[in-house]
């Protein structure tokens, strides 16, 4: 059977290649999904013959040993419109006796889903899953992709006839999140449901995606056997030489049961007596093997990976470079590598990866180039390029931080930060996440996953540059039309803490890993001099913290009793939510007394504490003390009863992570009701306060109810989709199209947005007639793009009260249009809206971010100053409220300078409806409501413009790995 690339090229333009997708199944393995083709006849027959009699009966309602030639022809020859069939395939091992390096892929079908149209917008569906692959979630994946394909073809409803004993298939329909109706007639169950996405179906899909992707990463970290393939002399890279020179010591000592080594100059026979076994030929390696680490010239990697099928390998780490960073040919090679890995059921880490390790399993697993692992702890770390991994891990070691797991994705051709966040959400060993992102391939999915994770665990992120728009060589990222602020707003909306660089990221990470989240922003200061106290106070004010003179001054001359009493009083009087302790003596080393007093007072107090003590940095024994269990630290695992997990210091993965990351000198807990608490140390007071300010903001975000997803009443999504289909087909491939004003008004009306009535006129008589119809007074507006909404340029006349005044205004606007070369442009007559604050609400479909909603007050000054707030749907009611209030000119809506307050609730309702519309319609290239006049009661939408374009949204209504 031909591979997917051969299928696509052979069938040409009629073949819907964009329906192909790599998917992660329920068990974490991967597979390839694609439309069926005539060349699949033999594979379909093999699939059918391999089914049990029961499975065949449940599918065809009759015994059927083989498919007839007529059936095979009908099943494999489809038109991809009224008759659609999708198959899920996995690679077979190469044919014996055929050189695997030169052989193409061989596929086996493991699942089939199809629909046949039975009405204008209705189709009958059927599924058949290979017996050996039941329980892996193939049916739900096929249903999602069939529904997406059917919606493209104008099908709105599915029906299926199922035998009552086929409970597994009935469950697939019911558990998909659609509203399913069911009837029974003559011993056959008929189910039917609309296939437009619902909130529940999208939530079900996201949850399935979450569990599958988390399980796939868990499979990598849980590997017990590994295969290392490399040629140290073939590629100039110390990485491979390092692995071979120390006999893959970091991997061997890292807990793998067996390490298979395949490389030049190694013994031909396996060393059966040790954990490391050397092989001359790949076909001699006994399976199963969990993980492969590949360090070969790029040109050899794909052919080698294709031979992994007999070994049942679940994951591959590719250290090699020479892929997408080299140009178009390298990008094609990288894509071939991804397709080969996924078709073989494998996840790919890399290429150009530093590898990964897990420090909290016993014994630790190390499939990276790191020679030393950090101590086990509660911090999950992710970066992309291998060179970036080196300074990150060096700084982690310098700070004595404990790490649960570390991943370097290289070019993130497959496994990305999104996958790791899915895993860390479920991983009890990881309570804090730090990520260095040189690029974000799917920001919309990132936002969704990060928001879910940040609600329970701090997520600290560094992006390449401050804009996040810099794309390193080798990273496949779509271009963006959105302003640079969009990324910052996405992080803010998702609860992500953004750091300026890796140093700041680890500053924040070490704080949330060892201290409770602040309950407020009131700062207390412990300082050895007034100048240091003033420095901290100034830094606190710059960070938006509240400092009102809560200062404890201690010096070298302060005796132990007074020092401890003063510091304890600061913690006990309830006046502080956070404390900054600074001790930098002018001459000599810092006395340990202040560090000990602060650590003792802070332990278990619930007051978030940071320190700047000369000679201390990161996690230290000097700033660690035993205290009550008290409030749960931000980075602590939480037991089922809600209490903090408590344990002794050491490598035990079930122990408390604070003690894990402290040195051996950290005191042991005195009793089960106690635990060690560590105050993180910083090199400068400014660094300590900056980390504290970021965490205070995060704690405030997490403490506030984030609301519910908006879904306003009075929307008609099917009607909106029908309008889009009606006015878009002629534009496919030709770029965006502007909707006629009447159609734009009709489209937004589907989402309950009523546009203020108006009439387009070409003469003074028509204008007077329109005004008589609409009612006086009226506004007269030019439709010229240069004069539209521009009263300052003479393009708008307001409060016209009678026909004579209107005729004069018509002549004035026509004359103004002639002056700018816009003669003949019609005018618009509109009934005057109540007075209020003029605002602009927009939505734009961005190739990278997906739908982006923006809000600002109307006017040149606002546009020139960039006073525009952004949000990425789906939005909650709290997000919408934040969007309105985050504009700097927003006070004008809330009774500015004694003026009446505007009806902000009505404005928020308009924004909510625009956000839902933008999320529902990926073809909505742009929408503008300008102006939206917000009065004391209500919000009047005076004008709407809409552009449509072919949908290209990356994060849609079907699960798929990046192409």
Automatic annotation (TrEMBL):
GO terms for molecular function: acyltransferase activity, transferring groups other than amino-acyl groups; ATP binding; metal ion binding. SUPFAM superfamilies: Acyl-CoA N-acyltransferases (Nat) (SSF55729), Glutathione synthetase ATP-binding domain-like (SSF56059), NAD(P)-binding Rossmann-fold domains (SSF51735), Succinyl-CoA synthetase domains (SSF52210). Residues 62-196 form the N-acetyltransferase domain. Residues 745-950 form the ATP-grasp domain. Residues 640-649, 660-673 have a biased composition (Low complexity). Residues 640-677 are annotated as: Disordered. It comes from the Bacteria. The keyword Thylakoid does not apply. Keywords: ATP-binding, Nucleotide-binding, Transferase. Signal peptide: none annotated. PANTHER family: COA BINDING DOMAIN CONTAINING PROTEIN, PEPTIDYL-LYSINE N-ACETYLTRANSFERASE PATZ. This is GNAT family N-acetyltransferase. It comes from Pengzhenrongella frigida.
């Amino acid at each position: 059977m031909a591979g997917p690339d051969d299928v696509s090229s052979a069938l040409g333009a009629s073949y819907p290649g964009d329906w192909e997708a790599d998917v992660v199944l329920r068990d974490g393995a991967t597979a390839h999904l694609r439309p069926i083709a005539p060349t699949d006849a033999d594979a379909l027959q093999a699939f059918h013959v391999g089914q049990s009699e029961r499975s065949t009966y449940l599918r065809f309602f009759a015994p059927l040993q083989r498919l007839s030639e007529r059936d095979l022809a009908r099943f494999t020859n489809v038109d991809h419109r009224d008759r659609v069939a999708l198959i899920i395939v996995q690679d077979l091992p190469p044919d014996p006796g055929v050189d695997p390096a030169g052989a193409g892929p061989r596929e086996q079908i493991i699942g089939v889903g199809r629909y046949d149209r039975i009405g204008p917008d209705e189709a009958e569906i059927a599924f058949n899953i290979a017996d050996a692959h039941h329980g892996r979630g193939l049916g739900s994946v096929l249903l999602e992709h069939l529904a997406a394909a059917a919606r493209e073809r104008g099908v709105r409803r599915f029906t299926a006839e199922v035998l009552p004993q086929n409970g597994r298939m009935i469950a697939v329909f019911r558990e998909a999140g659609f509203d399913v109706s069911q009837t029974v007639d003559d011993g056959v169950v008929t189910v039917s449901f609309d296939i437009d996405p619902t909130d529940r179906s999208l939530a079900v899909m996201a949850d399935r995606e979450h569990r599958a992707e988390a399980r796939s990463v868990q499979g990598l970290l849980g590997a017990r056997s590994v295969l290392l393939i490399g040629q140290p002399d073939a590629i100039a890279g110390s990485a491979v030489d390092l692995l071979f020179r120390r006999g893959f010591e970091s991997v061997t000592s890292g807990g793998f049961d067996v390490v298979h080594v395949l490389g030049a100059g190694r013994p031909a026979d396996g060393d059966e007596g040790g954990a490391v076994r050397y092989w001359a030929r790949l076909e001699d390696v006994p399976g199963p093997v969990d993980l492969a680490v590949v360090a070969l010239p790029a040109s050899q990697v794909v052919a080698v990976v294709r031979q992994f099928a007999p070994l049942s390998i679940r994951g591959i780490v590719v250290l090699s470079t020479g892929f997408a960073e080299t140009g178009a040919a390298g990008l094609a090679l990288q894509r071939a590598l991804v397709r080969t890995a996924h078709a073989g059921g494998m996840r790919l880490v890399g290429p150009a990866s530093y590898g990964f390790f897990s420090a909290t399993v016993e014994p630790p697993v190390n499939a990276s180039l790191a020679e030393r692992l950090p101590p086990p702890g509660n911090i999950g770390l992710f970066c992309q390029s291998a060179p970036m991994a080196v300074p990150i891990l060096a700084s982690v070691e310098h700070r004595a931080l404990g790490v649960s797991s570390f991943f370097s994705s290289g070019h993130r051709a497959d496994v990305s930060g999104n996958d790791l966040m899915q895993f860390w959400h479920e991983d009890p060993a990881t309570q804090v996440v730090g990520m260095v992102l040189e690029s974000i391939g799917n920001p919309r999915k990132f936002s969704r996953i990060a928001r879910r994770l940040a609600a329970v665990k701090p997520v600290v992120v560094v992006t390449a540059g401050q804009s996040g728009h810099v794309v390193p060589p080798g990273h496949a990222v779509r271009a963006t039309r959105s302003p640079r602020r969009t990324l910052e707003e996405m992080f803010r909306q998702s609860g992500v803490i953004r750091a300026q660089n890796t140093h700041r990221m680890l500053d924040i990470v070490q704080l949330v890993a060892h201290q409770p989240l602040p309950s407020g922003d009131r700062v207390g200061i412990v300082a050895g001099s007034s100048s240091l106290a003033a420095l901290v106070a100034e830094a606190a004010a710059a960070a938006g913290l509240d400092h009102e003179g809560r200062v404890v001054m201690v010096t070298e001359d302060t005796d132990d009793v007074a020092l401890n009493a003063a510091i304890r009083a600061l913690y006990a009087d309830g006046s502080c939510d956070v404390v900054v302790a600074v001790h930098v003596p002018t001459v000599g080393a810092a006395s340990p007394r202040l560090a000990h007093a602060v650590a003792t007072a802070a332990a278990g107090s619930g007051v978030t504490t940071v320190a700047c003590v000369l000679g201390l940095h990161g996690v230290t024994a000097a700033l660690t003390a035993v205290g009550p269990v008290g409030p749960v630290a931000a980075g602590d695992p939480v037991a089922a009863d809600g209490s903090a997990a408590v344990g002794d210091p050491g490598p035990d993965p079930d122990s408390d992570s604070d003690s894990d990351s402290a040195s051996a000198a950290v005191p042991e807990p005195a009793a089960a009701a106690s635990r060690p608490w560590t105050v993180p140390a910083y090199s400068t007071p400014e660094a300590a306060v900056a980390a504290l300010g970021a965490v205070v903001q995060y704690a405030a975000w997490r403490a506030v109810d984030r609301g519910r997803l908006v879904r306003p009443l009075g929307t008609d999504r099917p009607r909106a989709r029908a309008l889009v289909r009606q006015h878009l087909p002629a534009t496919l491939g030709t770029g965006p199209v502007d909707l006629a004003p009447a159609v734009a008004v009709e489209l937004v009306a589907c989402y309950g947005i009523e546009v203020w009535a108006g009439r387009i006129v070409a003469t003074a008589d028509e204008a007077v007639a329109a005004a008589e119809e609409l009612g006086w007074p009226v506004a007269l507006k030019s439709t010229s793009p240069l004069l539209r909404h521009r009263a300052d340029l003479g393009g708008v006349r307001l409060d016209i009260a009678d026909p004579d005044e209107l005729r004069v205004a018509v002549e004035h606007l026509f004359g103004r249009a002639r002056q700018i070369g816009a003669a003949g442009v019609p005018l618009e007559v509109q009934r005057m809206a109540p007075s209020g604050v003029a605002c602009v609400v927009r939505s734009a479909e961005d190739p990278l971010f997906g739908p982006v909603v923006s809000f600002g007050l109307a006017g040149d000054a606002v546009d020139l100053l960039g006073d525009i707030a952004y949000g990425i749907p789906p939005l909650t009611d709290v997000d919408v409220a934040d969007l309105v209030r985050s504009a700097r000119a927003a006070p004008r809506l809330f009774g500015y300078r004694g003026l009446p307050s505007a009806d902000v609730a009505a404005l928020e309702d308009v924004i909510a409806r625009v956000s839902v519309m933008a999320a529902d319609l990926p073809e909505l290239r742009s929408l503008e409501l300008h102006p939206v006049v917000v009065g004391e009661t209500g919000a009047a939408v005076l004008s709407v413009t809409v552009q449509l374009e072919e949908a290209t949204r990356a994060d849609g209504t079907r699960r798929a790995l990046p192409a």
